[in-house]
Amino acid sequence: QVQLVESGGGLVQAGDSLRLSCTVSGGTFNQYAMGWFRQAPGKEREFVASISVSGGGRCYEDSVKGRFTISRDNAKNTVYLQMNTLAPWDTAAYFCAARVSQYDICYRAALEYRTWGQGTQVSVSL
What we know:
Blueprint: E1 3-7, E2 10-13, E3 18-25, E4 32-39, E5 46-51, E6 58-60, E7 68-73, E8 78-83, E9 92-100, E10 115-116, E11 120-125
Parallel strand pairs: 2-11
Antiparallel strand pairs: 1-3, 3-8, 4-5, 4-9, 5-6, 7-8, 9-10, 9-11
C-alpha cells in the first residue's frame, strides 16, 4: 500500500521561506508523477505545483511561479516544495499527491491523482 507523508509546515512571517517534503513508501517512486495542492478554510483544494516522473517536467499555478520550486529526489523517494517569499494568502493545508504515469509529464488536476497524503499546515502571518 502506497503511503505519502508530508512534513515541513509551520507558522512563519510574510517574506519567510519554508520547504515542504513528501516521502513515499510502499511503491516505486520513480514511476510516480507527483503534485502539491493546498486548501484554505472554506475554499476548494487548488493546484500548486507538479513534477513529472523524471523531474524534467514541472508545472506551477500562476500565483506561485517565481516563488515556489518543486523538485524530487528519486533516491530518497521524496518530493519537495521550496516556498520563498511567503504571503498570508499562501496560508493553507498543503497536500502531496501521487499517480503512476507512463508519460513524463506533469498533471494539474486533482482528479488525476490517486494517492494523497494527510497534509501539513502552512500559516503565514503579516
